[in-house]
Amino acid sequence: MLIRDYYKTPKSTYVMRLLWKAAGGDRYILERATFADQMKYMCLGGVVSATGIMAALAGGFAFYTIFEPKGSAIDQGFSAGTSILACFFGFFWGLMIFNIDRFIVTSTGKGDGTEAITWEEFKGAIPRILMGTIIAMTISKPVEIRMFKTEIDARLYEEQLKVQKDFEKRTAANFEDRLKTVDDALGKVGAARQELMDRIKAAEIEYLKQLNGTAGNGLRGDGPLAKALKATLDNLEQQMNQFDQAHAAELNDAQSKRQSILKDKDKALSENVAVAHGLDGLLERIKLADEIAGWGISLFVTLLFLAIELTPIFFKLMLVKTPYDYLEENIKELIKAENGVEVKYDYYKDKKGQERHLVIHHQAERLIHEKAKATEAQKELIDYAIKKYIEQQKGRMDENPDAFIKQLGDA
C-alpha cells in the first residue's frame, strides 16, 4: 500500500463500516479515499438505516392495529401474542424496506458529476423517485395514526357509541315487525282475546278504585258495589280462561313464536357491543386521522417522510465527483482489463440517434476464434481423408475391375 506523506485517511470504526455497507459504499476504496468521502457515505447509510427502522416501527404498529383484539377505543387491552407477531412482522417489513432503499440509493448514479440536476438526470431518476414516494407514504400513515392516537381514540369511541345505538334501534324495529306479524297471524282470535284483556283491565281498575274510595260515590271498602265489580271481574277472567282453552293450540303456537322472537331479540341486542367494537380498524383510524389532523398536517407529515426517503437520491445526483468516484472508476476499468473486457465509449449511434458503447470481450472472442479454427481444421482433415479413401478405391478398381462390377451386381 502506498504510504502518503501529505495525507493519511482516518481509520474507520465498526459503526462507520456498517453505515457504509447500508449506503452501498465500497470499504476497500473508502479506506483509501478522503474523510469527506467516508462521512458522505456514512450519512447516506444513516438515512437508509433510519428509514428502515421507521418502516419497522410503522409496519409493526399497523400489524398490531389490524390484528389486535377489538374492544372499546378508550379502554383497549394488551395482547402479548399479537405484540410478538407484530414485532416479527415489523422486523421483516423494516428489513424489506431497508433493502429496497439500499437498492435505490446504490443504483442511483452520480449524474454528470456536477451539483446541477439536469433534465436527463432527473428523468433517469423518476422510477426511483416513484418507488421512494410509495415507501414514504406507507411509512407516514401509521406514524400519523400513532401521533394522533389520543384524539383518534376519543373520536372513535363516539363513533362506536353511535353505531351501538343505531344497531339497537334497527334491531328493535326489526323484531317489532316480526312480533306484529305473529299477532296479525292470529286474526280474529287475537282481536277477541285482546278485547277481553282490555275489559278485564278496565274492570280491575274500577274494582280497585271502589276499594280505595276513589270511585264516583266516594265510598271506601268492600261494599255491595265492590262485590258486584269483583263478580264482573271474576266472570271476565273465567271467560278468558274458557277462551284460552278453546283456542289453546293457536295461542300456544303464537306464544311459542313470540318467545322465540324475543329470545332472538335479546341475543341480537347482546351483540351490539361486538358490532360497535368491530369499528376499531386501521381503515377507520386512517379516515379519522385525516379528519382530525386536516389535509395540511397530514400533507406535512407525508412531505417529511418524502424528504427523508428522497434526500439520498437527489443528493447523489447533486454530488460532485470526489477521489472515491475516480478510484471506483479506476478499479472498474482494471477489473474489466484483467478479464479482457474493452469498452469503447460513445462508439456508434443507434437507430434513434443515441450514442452507444462498443463492448469487446477479448477472452470470449479468442475462445470463439480458437473454436472456429479447430472446426475448420477438422473439416479440412475430413475432406482429405475422403479424398484419400476415393483414391484408394480407384486403385483397387484399376487392379481388378471385374471383381468390383461383380460386387455391385451381388449388391
Give an overview of the whole structure.
The longest helix is centred in the middle third of the chain and has 38 residues, at 149-186. Helices cover 78% and strands 4% of the residues. With 411 residues, the chain is mostly helical. It is built from 14 helices and two strands. A hairpin with a 5-residue loop joins β1 and β2. A two-stranded antiparallel sheet has the order 1-2. It is elongated.
Q: Can you tell me the residue ranges where pLDDT is under 50 for at least 5 consecutive residues?
A: none
CA-atom Rg in angstroms: 47 Å
Helix proportion of residues, in percent? over 70%
**Beta-strand percentage?**
under 5%
The counted number of beta strands is 2
Largest beta-sheet characterization: 2 strands, antiparallel
Average pLDDT works out at 80
Please outline what is shown here.
The chain has helices at residues 14-23, 27-30, 35-67, 80-107, 119-147, 149-186, 188-212, 224-246, 248-270, 272-277, 282-318, 323-338, 362-399, 401-410, and strands at 341-349, 355-361. The chain has 411 residues and is mainly α.
